[in-house]
Amino acid sequence: MPTNPVLPGFHPDPSVCRVGETFYLATSSFGYFPGLPLYRSENLVDWAPIGHALARESQLDTRDARASGGIFAPTLRHHDGTFYLTSTNTSGEGHFLVTADDPAGEWSDPVYVDAPGIDPDLFWDGDTAYFTYFTTDTDRGIEQAEIDPETGELGERRTVWTGHEDPHAEAPHIYERAGTYYLVAAEGGTHTGHSVTVGRSDDPTGPFEPHPENPVLTHRDDFYRDVHATGHADLVTDADGNWWLVCLGIRPRGGFPGWHHLGRETFLAPVAWADGWPVVDGAEVPAEIDAAALPGDADPANADPNPVEHTDTDFAEGRPVEFCYRRTPDRDRYAFTGDGLVLRGGPETLDEKGTTFLARRQTHFDCRVRADIVFDPDPGEEAGLALVMDEEHHYELGVVCDGDDRTALVRVTVGDATDVLAREPVGERVTLGVDAAAESYEFRVDGEPVAEARPKYLATEVAGGFTGVVVGPYAVADEGPAEATPARVERFVYEPVER
User: Do 72 and 187 have their domain in common?
Assistant: First the structure.
């Protein structure tokens, strides 16, 4: 039986569209590069990564972005044979549009849209395109204007929604069904009060009458649920005309009220219709999804290996699609070779922007991570395996020069506090590892456990922000990358563990 979340780990603010019998989905990426990860599915539960919409520096530069700045919530749509993505670079020029004929191929450079706020939406009614967005101004609420998608030029702006209960209503999306237009929005903030509200109108410009049973989806009424903070929804129909909803949610750990470190994840729920209104059964996302109701084949036995679930790479074919850099990288620091990933560190540590660091999302509470590294550091150099939430919250298992010897150390950074939990002598070739569980990280050197730390201190409730934990190899060198001793990652393995 398929289970929620359908995209685990740091996959917030999902937006989905369908072309034929294939679904495509995009999520927020914040300061990471490439930006706007893209996924494809035939059944809405098995999502394979196909690339990123913002993969060139001409499209995205997040070198100066704050930890949870950069690229916010997208809307992904398909119209007249073209894919459109709109989003907001909160650390750059604001709202933008990019287009592609094939979502797995190259996307255009951004066309910028002169409007305030975040969470832009695109909707076509015949030949007219509408651009709807959250202004972040409680007096103006959610605004809308006609848009020329080729130029980004907007027509007259108007407020179309100021919230059902919350004047900070965000994440607008417009839909049409049987001649009626629906506005779906998020209210109640982005944490435990999050919810999905709906309004309807005879015109895409409103005014929108609120659903009499708003919110149509929320988990805020029961803090003992396994899933909290559900909201920021997008709707899609399958080829048989059935309606579905994707939204974000979190899975707290550590008991009531809990904390979450995997980030905001993507969930799926079926949508029914009653009296001309969308209805989500129980106003909640189900723990299990009825495979018989899904489009396509949702039998896990028939699913292809998915790098969201499992990574085993020697980096010989370049950067795997599931890996990303923390901000737009200095490409000269990374070489993908037949002998592995070669990293050259710079003076920036994981406490700073610009670190040499390549990572993938942690997508399971229980998982095993291993990195086979060849490194003979000089003084002031370090390389290893890191778990990162942001510059002030990260754990690393790194190899350093210790006199005439090499030492693997476990270092934890939480806010202003840094501590070294263990030191172990190692050879030039070493296997560094993390065995993760819901409430612990166990660090291993050449298979032997050397220290433990708690995921809680990498959680949003401690660190803040909108992202989740990522894990991968890093390198640091006082003298800079040109003089740095290269660290070679011969193999990287990420695999879920059944407990």
Answer: yes
